[in-house]
Fold this sequence. Notes:
The structure is a single chain. The chain is of the alpha/beta class. The protein has one domain: Rossmann fold (3-Layer(aba) Sandwich), CATH 3.40.50. The chain contains 6 helices and 4 strands. A 4-stranded parallel β-sheet has the order 2-1-3-4, with helices on both faces. α4 (88-97) links the parallel β3 (82-85) and β4. The N and C termini lie close together (12 Å). The relative contact order is 0.20.
Amino acid sequence: MNKICFVCHANICRSFSAECFLRDFLTKAQRDDVKVISRGIYAQSYFEVPSKITNFLASKSINQPPHTSALLTRQDMQDCTLVLTMTEDQKEYILDKYAQFSDKVFTLHEYVYGKEQSIKDPVSLTGRSFEKVLEEIYKTVQDLSKKI
């Protein structure tokens, strides 16, 4: 079984949203051959998913599953077949720490579209700026679901 891990900074916005989106796409496609998780490179268990993420998920008819922000671990790196970051800096951080897994680490845009492009952190954004970032993640993950 393939296992995909989305990674961002705190594991409460981008990576968590991507995880929820991909699970939803896979469920709708009746695929149970892919497991999906999300992690953060600076996550803390007390970090909470912002209500604007919950609201955005709801706008896509996705019920937010229970979530605890979690750090990316060596075990995750070993277990996952694909590790997708939101930024080039996050990718470099992971490659510095886990160089032996370099063949499975990509930015989300790099893996889906073949080009390096970072997805900005929407946590401090509001209104249309916030929605644009989440729509970008949604569309990119939708394209990923067709590729895997």
